[in-house]
Amino acid sequence: MKGPDIFRVTDGPPEVSGLLRHHHALMRASSPEESCHVLTEHELIATGCTVLACRTRARIVGVGAIKALDADHAELKSMHSAEEARGAGVRRALLNAL
Fold this sequence. Notes:
- This protein is of the alpha+beta class.
- The chain has one domain: Aminopeptidase.
- It has helices at about 15-30, 40-45, 90-95; strands spanning about 5-10, 50-55, 60-70, 75-80.
C-alpha cells in the first residue's frame, strides 16, 4: 500500500483552506483569547511558515505548519487532521516531513 502524499502548500487547494479554517475556529472556540495564538492560512504563509498537506486516496486529510526560529530551532504552528483520518498516522507523517 502506498503511503500518504505530503506536499508543500503555497496557495492551498480548497480542501486545505477548509481544514485550516476548521482548525482556526476550533482553536479560537476552545482557548482563552489571551492564550490563543493560532494563525489563519494567510498568516501562516505570509509569516514564512512551511505549510504541508497530506493527501490519501485523492483526498486532503491533514495539514501542518512549522516556523523556523533560527538555524537550529523551529516552532510547530499548526497541526490538524480530518476527523475521519485520525488514528491513521496522518499527523505522524506530517511531523516527519516537517
